[in-house]
From TrEMBL:
<dbReference type="GO" id="GO:0005524">
    <property type="term" value="F:ATP binding"/>
</dbReference>
<feature type="transmembrane region" description="Helical">
    <location>
        <begin position="272"/>
        <end position="296"/>
    </location>
</feature>
<feature type="domain" description="ABC transporter">
    <location>
        <begin position="332"/>
        <end position="565"/>
    </location>
</feature>
<dbReference type="GO" id="GO:0016887">
    <property type="term" value="F:ATP hydrolysis activity"/>
</dbReference>
<dbReference type="InterPro" id="IPR017871">
    <property type="entry name" value="ABC_transporter-like_CS"/>
</dbReference>
<dbReference type="InterPro" id="IPR039421">
    <property type="entry name" value="Type_1_exporter"/>
</dbReference>
<dbReference type="InterPro" id="IPR003593">
    <property type="entry name" value="AAA+_ATPase"/>
</dbReference>
<keyword id="KW-0813">Transport</keyword>
<feature type="transmembrane region" description="Helical">
    <location>
        <begin position="158"/>
        <end position="179"/>
    </location>
</feature>
<dbReference type="GO" id="GO:0005886">
    <property type="term" value="C:plasma membrane"/>
</dbReference>
<keyword id="KW-0067">ATP-binding</keyword>
<dbReference type="GO" id="GO:0140359">
    <property type="term" value="F:ABC-type transporter activity"/>
</dbReference>
<feature type="domain" description="ABC transmembrane type-1">
    <location>
        <begin position="19"/>
        <end position="301"/>
    </location>
</feature>
<dbReference type="InterPro" id="IPR036640">
    <property type="entry name" value="ABC1_TM_sf"/>
</dbReference>
<keyword id="KW-1003">Cell membrane</keyword>
<feature type="transmembrane region" description="Helical">
    <location>
        <begin position="20"/>
        <end position="41"/>
    </location>
</feature>
<protein>
    <submittedName>
        <fullName>ATP-binding cassette, subfamily B</fullName>
    </submittedName>
</protein>
Amino acid sequence: MFKKVFEYAGEYKAYTYRAIVYILLGIAFSIIPYFCVYKIVNALLQNQEITMPYLTALIGTALISLLLYAVLNVKGLQQSHIAAYNTLKNLRISLQGKLEKLPLGTIEEVGTGSIKKMFIDDIETLELLLAHAIPEGIGNLCVPVVIYIVLFAVDWKLALLSMATLPLGILAMAIMFAIGNKDMNHYYMAAQKMNNTIIEYVNGMEVVKVFNRDGESYEKYENSVTNYRDFTLAWFKACWPWMAIYSSLIPCIAFLTLPVGAYLVLQGYSTLSNLVLVLCLTFAIGGPILHALSFAGKFPQLIYKIEELEKMMGAAPLKQSEEGFHGKDYTIDFHQVSFAYKEEEVIHQISLHINPGTMNAFVGESGSGKSTLAKLLVHFYDVGQGSVSIGGQNIAEMSIEALGDQISYVSQEQFLFNMSLLENIRLGKKNATDAEVLEAAHKAQCDEFLNRIEGGIMAMAGDSGKQLSGGERQRISLARAILKDAPIIVLDEATAFMDPENEEKMNQAIAEVIKDKTVIVIAHRLHSIVNADCIFVLKNGRLDASGTHQELLEESGEYNKLWKIAETSANWHVSTGGEQ
Ligand SMILES: Nc1ncnc2c1ncn2[C@@H]1O[C@H](COP(=O)(O)OP(=O)(O)OP(=O)(O)O)[C@@H](O)[C@H]1O
């Protein structure tokens, strides 16, 4: 599992290897002062003479060793951090690439909060693994292993004694792992839920302020935060005792060595000199062992987070190929298409044909499936059954990029990035000149508000485009579409909620976008699409009828019903206006 994370290090793996070597050498040097102490204590115990130059040499060696330890440790950590942060960068970029290829449904299912948590928090915690646990853990464990081999060679009885508490410590650690892993799922789910609820709460702040200050959404928020606290505390409560046991037992390696070792010396089974050596070195390796094991408590969480990341990286992507677009024209065909967002099917066996260069409309009651059909055409989701093709080429047999180049999709809610309006429009065509962007903005009827707002086209759009009104945001999106100049245009209720002045401007902008294109408009206002070449009437996820306005008035009961509602609504507008 760690190997998979390590794969993202790419060329920076060498930094990790270097970090391990530096840290290992550093720890080896950190043992030397204890060896110097042994030399002095042993000489005193053996009544040997200690000359000043000898003492100075020992103290000097100890000091230089400590200095080298510090320098090598810092150098090692420097290398390991370079490796770690580059791996995190690679992971974040790969995750973003993966998200782009996933069906929107998978992303919706995971939730914005969880995805944010994965991108920021979960990946960040891998820093502990890459920058510390791997290099420091390996370094801090390797040196004691070597020292133990030396100790066994010097006096196996004393060496064995100094390891007496290790099995109990390792047992406590194993229990902690088992408990930690068992409850990790609940803990992680609670964290995910809290993240999703926080994002939902912040996104819905406008609604909360107006309607629901103390209501359900706050309760949901508070519950998820409380839940997270409870699960975290419960998890730690279960693990803490075992952490305390192994952290106390493992470093107590001299616990039996001193009394039993002294007995062995007195009985002549070991020498005093060896006992002093074993004691000094066991003190020296207690620190590194404890340091290496300090990472162990974090491992259940790390393993879980890596598994979740792997699940995301391994999620089934949208069906697509590397093929470019080679359709014979811009005919659109839905062939026996069925689709379900989750379990319940919302589109049933729809087949329809759209001729190139024509103006088409999807109409139907709310929830009849108009937007879903548009989203299937732009390949936000894979169809459940059937196929969608352009110019005879199945959209699942071309790359997402190739499909994207053929379609401009202006959806109900347009998202603007918090960068200049100029750059927001330029998203339509990466290499467009400033003059081309300005021309597109002009055609999309943006001049009036661009002249009004401070900074004009260089003004920032604000967080998610909040600086602009809904109508202004839509016109910026249309400017994007004009610039993109794709042969197929899908307009999802672009004028649904507009005041008459804005609608007039939008209609002029739309007329500019749709010139000579294959167009699909998803319209609530039937009056705006009466001239369409073909109108498709949807009812409960099925295609009920299709034809021109006149044909449908003559043949389709559902269309007549919609038309009546549209007329009543238009009359209602007129009479309301008249009374004012
Ligand atoms: N993201 C989603 N997850 C689950 N179900 C969805 C999702 N989006 C839409 N639906 C359901 O799919 C069905 C069709 O919805 P769709 O948005 O396509 O209808 P529509 O005709 O465009 O409606 P409207 O005119 O109100 O926008 C509805 O029953 C809706 O509840």
